[in-house]
Design a protein that fits this description.
Shape of chain A: globular
Radius of gyration of chain A: 21 Å
Low-confidence stretches of chain B: none
Number of helices of chain B: 13
Order of helices and strands of chain A: HHHEHEHEHEHEHEEHEHHEHHH
Largest interface: A-B, 44 and 43 residues
Oligomer: heterodimer
Largest sheet of chain A: 5 strands, parallel
Strand content of chain B: 15-25%
Mean pLDDT of chain B: 97
Number of strands of chain B: 19
Low-confidence stretches of chain A: 1-5, 340-344
Helix content of chain B: 25-40%
Strand order of the largest sheet of chain A: 7-6-5-8-9
Largest sheet of chain B: 8 strands, mixed
Distance between the termini of chain B: 24 Å
Number of helices of chain A: 14
Chain lengths: ~350, ~425
């Protein structure tokens, strides 16, 4: 018996209540999701990233001179935290770092109260990394400040998707900064590994198909449920890594997120046999593809040291692009119009 | 006690088969006389309410609310919860036992029923099925029943062990109590905070599969089938999935005494209404897919659903102003149920007014065996709701009589405005 046989067919046309549009983001300077950005806004950020990257540091320094930016980090981070901090400082802003391990968060202060406290201390924008999906929306709603989502749980990491896009464009569409819905037509990006727990995968899946790219997810069912393809257009699943590689211009490897496994067990040897990116595999199936990784990489697990350091790897380029993209995003957050609105 | 005359209203009493203009005289907490409109005249000492142009119906009955007392008075009290009930047209509510401590004793049941609690409408405690709702050893159902409990359930802590559920069904049948199950196989929902599916994947939240509900409903129906006792009554609380509804439908075809309720949010909203992490759209069972929601509407229109129940679950504002996965489950519902049912079930989906009211009064009363409730036949309790069925109005959560504001229906258009709610002959609520 099929599932359909047990469900009564709907007899009439129902017109249920519509879903109201989300009120967020409340602040135009916020970047909570890549979905907040039109393609024009993406183009503008890419152009500003390039302009700011090459600008005279002593000129750049005055753009956000003495503006106050708070970095609120509930999870450990090397790349994201440092690059946001360097980006804000490069523009002349003062930054302060609050981490869950050396603040009143340890004493039980809620995200709301921590956010309101930072606002009262004069923070004009907050960069938030949090272990709960959706935390950035809560912080923005209660503070109404520009909030930059630097990773919320298993949900999104919008600046990662933007820096990944900048990296991809530099190689497959050199010179292109103004993006449109066909800019990445014909480009297949395969994202491999722990898709289920990855905010990098989600932000990329919500951005790259809008530019015409195909996103292929590859991984075991435990990390890649079948329903993932229902999350949006342009997304498909290919369980066989070699088959996926053969179609790909870009391959993005992900770390297994031990901190989010919630008791799940995984056979690492079997995982490596199926999904580790080795030099041999790369040479056989995707000898000219870009190899990307959001970091931190675990050498010898999702990819071999040889691949990480190899000629197809752009992993460190991604890191460098992170600073440029985050300069553009922080600049956007603190543009006059957004902060003077003073909405509360 | 003074008498109360409700004049010139349009009486709809589905259980008594009445649908027409009537005068109703209430005295000493009971309905004493019903006559054609204009026939009854107020005498000395009789208060009179002019119900011209209004609908008069049996007071509404909600068989699934959380009043939070004892133990969690900061969320709601029996007094504030029943004030919200009265404002919503309800004259009787059945209170779930997940209080602190759990209502698993005659003593707590009696405490809830004491006049000191200040209830504005009739409260019917539903007692815990097992000690502390831990699912290990069943309570003394006879003692709970004589203290006033009308059913048993472990509500938010569903009984997973087959042996305990079987024992519960047998013992409840023996004393004539219904067994209510919150159907959720909690082994499948660890750490989950919304319905499983593409939306949960997109939001990066762990999901509760529909099978967590339907598999337990199917298990319970199997146990009822095996017991072969026509008196055994299983009631499925807040049904939310098409598969569970199909299981209930099949059980009814097989002649079993299996009933179910649906909450307004489950026949109106889907997981999409969570938007970006609105904690006022977080409850358990969660908002489901559009197909599940449509199956709830169909179940109501088809008559498979026996009651609309709100699962009124108040929480303090600060408890909901947290990360989605850390927020407690539940939304308020007592003040919005009638307005939503009239706006959607009646106006939009054309369910006759009498059937809507029956789902909110006569049927839930019959389901829990609440004698003298759910009808305005002479001799019944004088539990009456008088409302203007035509008025559209906007619900404002900040104007609530409940202590809590956690509703996804803030700002929604309601149809039908309650004018008076009369509980056992006393005006428990009158709109300005």
């Amino acid at each position: 018996m099929t599932a359909a046989a047990t469900v009564t067919p709907v007899r009439r046309q129902l017109h249920p209540p519509p879903v109201a549009a989300s009120p967020s983001p409340y602040n135009e300077g916020s970047l909570l999701s890549v979905q907040d950005l039109t393609l024009d806004a993406v183009s503008h950020l890419l152009a500003r990233a390039s302009a700011l990257e090459t600008m005279d540091p002593l000129v750049r320094d005055r753009i956000l001179l003495k503006r106050r930016v708070a970095l609120l980090f509930y999870e450990s981070s090397t790349r994201t935290r440092t690059s946001f901090e360097l980006a804000a400082k490069s523009l002349g802003a003062d930054t302060t770092l609050i981490s869950n391990l050396s603040s009143s968060i340890e004493k039980g202060e809620t995200l709301k109260d921590t956010g309101l406290t930072l606002r009262a201390l004069g923070a004009e924008a907050i960069i938030l990394r949090h272990n709960s999906s959706g935390a950035a929306w809560l912080l923005e709603e209660v503070t109404r400040l520009p909030v930059l989502n630097a990773g919320d749980g298993m949900h999104e990491h919008p600046t990662q998707a933007l820096l990944d896009l900048r990296t991809i464009l530099a190689h497959v569409r050199p010179g292109v900064e103004a993006v449109a819905q066909d800019t990445l037509a014909g480009v297949t990006v395969t994202i491999v590994g722990d898709i289920l727990h990855s905010r990098v995968a989600r932000s990329n899946m919500l951005l790259l198909p809008r530019l015409g790219a195909r996103v292929v997810f590859c991984g075991p069912p435990q990390f890649l449920p079948e329903l993932a393809t229902g999350a949006g257009p342009g997304i498909s699943i290919e369980r066989d890594f070699d088959t996926a590689l053969q179609q790909s211009q870009v391959v993005m490897m992900l770390r297994i997120q031990a901190e989010r496994l919630a008791g799940q067990q995984i056979d690492l040897e079997q995982y490596k046999a199926s999904y580790q990116l080795t030099g041999q595999r790369l040479a056989a199936h995707a000898p000219s593809a870009l190899v990307m990784h959001p970091g931190p990489i675990i050498r010898g697990l999702e990819l071999t040291a040889g691949v990480a350091d190899g000629s197809q790897s752009v992993i460190l380029e991604q890191v460098t692009n992170g600073v440029a993209i985050r300069m553009a995003v922080v600049e956007r957050a603190l543009a006059e119009a957004h902060t003077k609105a003073g909405r509360s | 006690m003074t008498a109360l005359l409700i004049r010139n209203g349009h009486l709809i009493d589905p259980a008594a088969g009445v649908d027409g203009p009537r005068d109703i005289l209430l005295k000493d907490g009971r309905v004493v006389e019903i006559s054609a409109a204009g026939k009854l005249k107020p005498t000395n000492g009789t208060e009179s309410l002019d119900a011209t142009g209004l609908t008069v119906a049996p007071g509404l009955i909600d068989i699934h609310v959380h009043l939070r007392e004892p133990g969690q008075g900061y969320k709601e009290t029996i007094a504030t919860g029943t004030a919200a009930a009265a404002a919503g047209g309800f004259t009787a509510v059945a209170a779930m036992p997940n209080t602190s401590p759990v209502n698993d004793s005659a003593e707590i049941t009696r405490w809830m029923l004491a006049p000191e609690r200040g209830a504005h409408v009739r409260v019917y405690p539903i007692a815990a099925a097992t000690r502390g709702s831990k699912g290990e050893s069943i309570n003394d159902f006879a003692a709970l029943k004589s203290a006033g409990a009308v059913a048993v359930t472990d509500d938010g802590h569903p009984i997973l062990k087959d042996s305990i559920m079987r024992e519960t069904l047998v013992a409840a049948t023996r004393v004539g109590l219904s067994v209510i199950q919150h159907a959720e196989d909690t082994r499948m929902t660890q750490g989950a905070s919304m319905n499983a599916g593409p939306t949960a994947f997109k939001l990066g939240l762990r999901g509760m599969p529909p099978e967590a509900e339907s598999s337990l409903v199917e298990r319970d129906i199997r146990l009822v089938t095996e017991l072969r006792d026509a008196r055994t009554h299983l009631h499925v609380a807040h049904t939310s999935t098409a598969a569970a509804m199909a299981a209930v439908r099949q059980a009814r075809r097989n002649g079993l005494r299996v009933t179910c309720e649906v909450a307004p949010h489950h026949f109106l909203l889907t997981e999409e209404h969570i938007g970006f992490y609105n904690t006022n759209a977080k409850m358990n069972p969660p908002l489901r897919s559009a197909a599940d929601r449509d199956a709830m509407i169909e179940g109501i229109l088809d008559g498979i659903v026996d009651a609309i129940a709100t699962d009124h679950a108040p929480h303090a504002t600060h408890e909901k102003e947290v990360e989605f996965e850390n927020a407690p489950n539940g939304i308020t519902g007592l003040e919005t149920a009638l307005g939503l049912c009239l706006r959607w079930l009646h106006k939009e989906w054309k369910l006759p007014l009498g059937r809507v009211l029956s789902l909110l009064s006569a049927q839930p009363a019959a389901l829990l065996g609440l004698k003298g409730r759910g009808t305005l036949a002479v001799g019944s309790f004088a539990d009456v709701v008088v409302f203007d069925p035509k008025v559209e109005w906007i619900y404002r959560a900040k104007e609530t009589h409940s202590k809590a504001h956690n509703t996804p229906f803030d700002g929604w258009t309601m149809q039908g405005k309650v004018r008076w709610t009369i509980s056992e002959g006393r005006v428990a609520y009158a709109s300005a």
